[in-house]
Design a protein that fits this description.
The chain is of the alpha/beta class. It has a domain of 219 residues: NAD(P)-binding Rossmann-like Domain (Rossmann fold), CATH 3.40.50.720. The protein has a seven-stranded parallel sheet, with helices on both faces. The chain has a two-stranded parallel sheet with strand order 6-15. Strand 4, helix 3 and strand 5 form a beta-alpha-beta unit.
């Protein structure tokens, strides 16, 4: 059992999508003794930090340098949420991904283990590659074949931790298709909910890829979509209640179609569905996954019993309480508005 209210918490990638959501939930629990690390650069993700409360901020490369030169300055850190990474699935600079996603994670993991600090890090469902089945953490790591360099950089650390026998002492989270507030800065890596909301707002319709397989009709390709608030609830539960544990899938455990997703957006906007099916670029057709789903048995067996928010309800909360009013997690009145909207349903 880890008491997150004791000591200082380090959140890397703290201005990013999942990192800022972790800080938001910690704030909701009254926890503000947080050190945030990130690469802000010229992106707009700094806006995610504005409503949040934390004790200090530093650029991620400064953090690595100071850990090397003056590790005693971080002796009070009792928990590390390592959520910073290059998450672009189209990034082709392998050396950059190795330094940013693999080497950085190794350094923080070693520091955490030497300091007896709780270490929770973001792996990825991308490590499963093209598997179209209900995927489980029980699949041997040596059998996985990631489809892109991003997925491989994440897989590489999982394998490193297993080889060096530290995986049982840390917690790796294989996030599936997470969507929700604070993702606007992610560009092409934004969720389809965010992209479709803006397409519908601008054109009144949404475009989906046609299916090129007879066993899936157009729009009935399936993904394991999970609302970020549920992902964060699972993340903090594991951080508090599980002593290491290795790898955990963080998904809904329920596949949903693209049609279900976009129809929920139209419903939240009070508009009838207007869906256009378009041709998929030929270079994607042989790589496209038609089905993903997380087996969340390990997560449930670890004691996380909270229900996952049904997809239409999660989409409505995101659209009505964050996208339409241009709010971030932590902005004043987000929660009261959500309760008002629930009363209207």
């Amino acid at each position: 059992m880890t008491d997150l209210s004791k000591g200082r918490i380090l959140v890397t990638g703290g201005a990013g999508f999942i990192g800022s959501a972790v800080i938001w939930e910690l704030n909701r629990r009254g926890i503000v003794n947080i050190l945030v690390a990130d690469f802000l650069r010229q992106k707009e993700k700094w806006r995610n930090l504005v409503p949040l409360r934390f004790a200090d901020y530093m650029e991620a490369d400064d953090l690595l340098m100071r850990l090397d030169v003056s590790p005693h300055l971080f002796a009070d850190i009792t928990a590390i949420f390592h959520l910073g990474a290059c998450s672009s699935t189209t990034e082709t600079n392998a050396a950059y991904l190795i330094r940013n996603n693999f080497e950085y994670t190794k350094t923080l993991a070693r520091f955490a283990l030497e300091s007896d600090a709780r270490f929770v890090y973001a792996s990825s469902a991308a490590t499963y590659g093209c598997l179209e089945s209900r995927v489980s953490e029980s699949i041997p790591l040596a059998e996985l074949r990631p489809m892109n360099m991003y997925g491989y950089s994440k897989h590489l650390f999982d394998c490193y931790a297993e080889h060096h026998r530290i995986l049982p002492r840390i917690t790796g989270l294989k996030y599936f298709n997470i969507f929700g507030p604070n993702e606007a800065h992610k560009g092409d890596m934004r969720s389809v909910v965010h992209k479709a909301f803006h397409e519908i707002s601008e054109t009144g319709q949404v475009s989906l890829f046609r299916s090129y397989r007879p066993d899936f009709r157009d729009g009935e390709q399936q993904r394991d979509f999970l609302y970020v608030k549920d992902a964060i609830a699972a993340t903090l539960y594991l951080a508090e209640h599980v002593d290491g544990g290795g790898l955990f899938n963080i998904g809904s455990g329920q596949p949903n179609t693209w049609l279900t997703l976009v129809k929920a957006i139209f419903s939240a906007l009070g508009q009838p569905p207007n869906i256009k099916f378009i041709e998929m670029p030929e270079h994607l057709r042989d790589k496209y996954q038609y089905y993903t789903c997380a087996d969340i048995t390990r997560l449930r067996e670890a004691g996380f019993t909270a229900p996952m928010t049904p997809l239409p309800e999660a989409v409505r909360d995101y659209v009505v309480n964050y996208l339409l009013p241009h709010r971030h997690l932590g902005d004043e009145a987000s929660e009261p508005r959500m309760k008002t909207q629930e009363a209207l349903r």
